[in-house]
Design a protein that fits this description.
Layout lengths: L16 H14 L3 H6 L12 H26 L3 H7 L5 H13 L2 H16 L9 H17 L18 H4 L1
Organism: Cardamine amara subsp. amara
Protein name: Gag-pol polyprotein
Length: about 170
């Protein structure tokens, strides 16, 4: 975890969950904590006697529990007090992460509706007279990234870049 003390943790205030969750996942990955956030800590197996194998498993479990506590601490400090109250009862990083995900990303039905709205917006995207190509391509890239984040496969996206050489009046 060299250099991790200098990394600024973004504070989540309830806005732009899709962007914040990507940033937080990257922070957890750089600190090798993502597996405990995403999967949780494995249950402790019941053993009659301790062998070198079970001692190693116990050490690995203790490390996973410490990583989980570290990840939970990061999550708790990376949210406002108002949002913290929603994850305060979580005992593990996975519980806290799942609670935030459920509340701010929504149910599968809500995500599907968001995806359909983004598809419609993508299909209706036009370059207007007087609009700079950079402005149009920036909108296009942002929309493609949102679609990908919400589950759209890249190969299913229509290729708008073929039309960018046309004048704005031809793009419509």
């Amino acid at each position: 975890m060299q250099g991790s003390s200098h990394q600024v943790i973004p504070i989540f205030d309830g806005e732009k969950y899709d962007l914040r969750s990507i940033k937080m996942a990257t922070i957890f990955r750089t600190r090798k904590l993502w597996s405990v956030v995403e999967e949780g800590v494995p249950d402790e197996p019941v053993q009659a006697e301790e062998t070198p194998e079970t001692a190693r498993e116990k050490t690995l479990r203790e490390e996973a529990m410490m990583n989980d506590t570290t990840a939970l601490q990061i999550l708790q400090t990376a949210v406002t007090d108002q949002i913290f109250s929603r994850i305060a009862a979580a005992l593990t990083a996975k519980e806290a992460w799942d609670a935030l995900k459920a509340e701010y990303q929504g149910s599968p039905q809500v995500r599907l509706i968001k995806l359909q709205a983004l598809r419609r917006e993508y299909e209706n995207l036009k370059m207007y007279d007087g609009e700079e190509i950079k402005t149009f391509t920036d909108k296009l890239i942002v929309l493609e990234n949102q679609l990908t984040y919400h589950g759209e496969k890249e190969d299913r996206l229509p290729n708008h870049t073929e039309d960018t050489h046309l004048s704005p009046s031809q793009v419509r």
